[in-house]
Amino acid sequence: MTAYITKRLLIALVTILVASVIVFSMLEIVPGDPARVMLGMNATPEALQALRDQMGLDQPLLVRYFDWIGQLLVFDFGKSYTYNIPVRDLIAERVVVSLPLAIMALALSTLIAIPVGIFSAERRGRMADTLSMGAAQIGVAVPNFWFALLLVYVFAVWLRLVPAGGFPGWGAGAWPALKALILPAIALALPQAAILSRVTRSAMLDVLGEDYIRTARAKGMPRNVVLWHHALRNALIPVLTILGLQFAFLLAGTIIIENVFYLPGLGRLVFQAITQRDLIVVEGVVMLLVAVVVLVNLLVDLSYAVVDPRLRTSR
Q1: Per mean pLDDT, which range of 3-7, 196-200, 241-245 is the poorest?
Q2: Residue 51 counted as domain residue
Q3: Looking at the domain assignment, is residue 315 inside a domain?
Q4: What is the model's pTM?
Q5: What values do phi and psi take at 86, rounded to 5?
Q6: Bridge partners of 79?
Q7: What CATH code is carried by the domain that includes residue 245?
Q8: N or C: fewer beta carbons within 10 Å in the chain?
Q9: How far apart are CA 30 and CA 33, in angstroms?
């Protein structure tokens, strides 16, 4: 078990190191002067020089890289030239929207997908299986922004049950804030639930044909115990893999949904920073998201050892 954890930690550290080199190189591959790219062709020489000094562009490449890594270790992502405030403060303002949204979407996706996948696997080849997997195929094929527009029309414009967009802030109360995140969470969760249900069904079908499942049924165990305790636990590894990837996607890939619902989250921040050519913000947010993705996948890898005891003793 110790060797397994050590190996996964080393892989995570190497991944973050390689990602930091790639993200840092983003400024280096920009054609021309990065300061001029960010400020535009009409920038004054004084403004260009001030930004070069701020970004340390007059320093050697390796010196700038290690200075940047050192700043990241103390959560110093630099200062946005557009907003003139630290990038760390911008991220702190936006993550309180994106993180709850991602958690809500992942919870909805899991609550929908796993029961549907088990239901469909148990009824393989029947009409219920065909209908549920057909609906899942539609969910995979239809983009989430289309679901978002449909939900806005039905629940915000027609029924007037929830706001069509915007975010009142957590200072307005927990319920108004959560209410503003319901439609975006559903729009994000439905396509992910479709993918996860198909993976769950496939994993369950592989497990339901095993000898120990037939033995459990032959001993007269209740159907729910066989499905939820024996079969599901042994089918969880591919499901956990998809869950980890989905959480990373939901946290980092919400640019379209946050723009549809006018949510001030990390996705919208990245979109605004790209349009404003604020590369310092883009660097900081992307590196943070890389670290979160690596951390989530590390936790998923460690959860494998909890689900599958063979990994605790295997070499």
Answers
A1: 3-7
A2: no
A3: no
A4: 0.82
A5: -60, 140
A6: 86
A7: 1.10.3720.10
A8: C
A9: 8
